[in-house]
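Pinned message: reference record for Secondary thiamine-phosphate synthase enzyme
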Amino acid sequence: MKIFQQSITLREKRRGFHLITGEILHAMPQISEISAGICQVFIQHTSASLTINENADPTVRKDFEMYFNKTVQENDPDYEHDYEGSDDMPAHLKASLLGSSVMIPIRNGRLALGTWQGIYLCEHRDRGGARGLIVTAWGE
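Predicted structure (tokens):
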């Protein structure tokens, strides 16, 4: 059993949904040493999240942002947690809806994503700052 783990700091990205598959692969070349295994990507934040979806058409990422902004609206007077601005509590809710980690099978030294799949960083804050990830890959 081989186990590899790497911390990654993603530069600050604007609010929205961003493909980060390439950044993960660049930071974890050891994935190529695993013929069968699992890769977990975990984000160390409560106002950003991760998901897997369409990697080709950027309008999908725009529509994700539109949908989540409609579904979890800002400036709700019932929010008590607004210390960091009107996008603060909605960002926490969006992050909980999407989740803090994704797991991808590794097959023949590659992430076994589908043809049209990529890993998204879901940035829910207007100014979220740099984001930390822990990427762990294990297998034979």
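Pinned by admin. Summary line: The CA atoms of residues 15 and 125 lie 6 Å apart.
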